[in-house]
Design goal:
Elements (H helix, E strand, L loop, with lengths): L2 H34 L8 H26 L3 H34 L10 H22 L2 H31 L4 H33 L7 H5 L2
Helix pairs in contact: 1-2, 1-3, 1-4, 2-3, 3-6, 4-5, 4-6, 5-6
């Protein structure tokens, strides 16, 4: 590998990390807006979304040029493919943060339905999953990536708890149906964020081990 090619790959990696940091900030601001019922806490989100979209285009452009001009093989080829897939998941995470903000704006038109406990937990787990998936990518750590994949079930469980509780509340008090449905949507947005973090972690395993573990493929091998 030439020194220039190494530098090009490092620029690609650093661009992804910048993109991930902005996506994580969007999650944070959107949840703070919800928890504190304060739209001013989310004013940076539209600008951050534009940045994420711009960085995705930059990643795709750099990756496409490297594929065309360098014709990489083996690990380098997997790295570039993984980078493009990761950028797509990061852009979708940003979209989910936008959805949370939009749902929150409707929710804030109504009195508070219930104290928020599980939803902030879901947000923290999802943000940590994203952080750890990117750390695994930087470190080339397949074990850490697999740990991220395992944590997806925690978010799924919390989402189910949120929906179960809200359904029971709506049955006894129909006046809270509209804001409760917005909370259900937020829980689903956070579940999707965790799913995208899981996708990134699966891409890291593919990058490091040339092994596809999507759709529980690894579990099926051991049955």
């Amino acid at each position: 590998m030439t020194k220039q090619f190494e530098q090009d790959l490092d620029i690609l990696k650093q661009t992804l990390l910048r993109m991930a940091a902005k996506a994580e900030s969007m999650i944070h601001y959107s949840i703070q807006e919800l928890v504190q019922r304060n739209p001013e806490l989310a004013v940076e989100i539209p600008t951050l979304e534009e940045d994420v979209n711009s960085l995705q285009l930059e990643v795709d452009d750099r990756a496409s040029k490297l594929l065309a001009l360098r014709q990489p093989m083996a690990h380098d080829l997997r790295f570039i493919i993984a980078a493009m897939k990761i950028s797509s998941d990061l852009e979708r995470i940003a979209d989910q943060a936008i959805n949370i903000t939009q749902n929150t704006r409707i929710l804030l038109l109504y009195p508070e339905v219930k104290p928020l406990i599980d939803i902030p937990k879901m947000a923290e787990i999802s943000k940590q999953m994203l952080r750890d998936a990117l750390d695994a990518f930087v470190q080339g750590d397949a074990a850490k990536a697999r740990d991220v994949v395992m944590r997806d079930d925690q978010v799924d469980h919390l989402k189910s708890e949120v929906i179960r509780e809200l359904e029971a509340m709506m049955m006894t008090d129909p006046t809270i149906i509209k804001p409760s449905l917005q909370l259900v949507l937020v829980a689903r947005n956070l579940e999707r964020i965790a799913d995208h973090a899981t996708n990134i972690a699966e891409d890291v395993v593919y990058l490091v081990e040339a092994k596809d573990i999507r759709h529980h493929a690894e579990e099926k091998e051991h049955r």
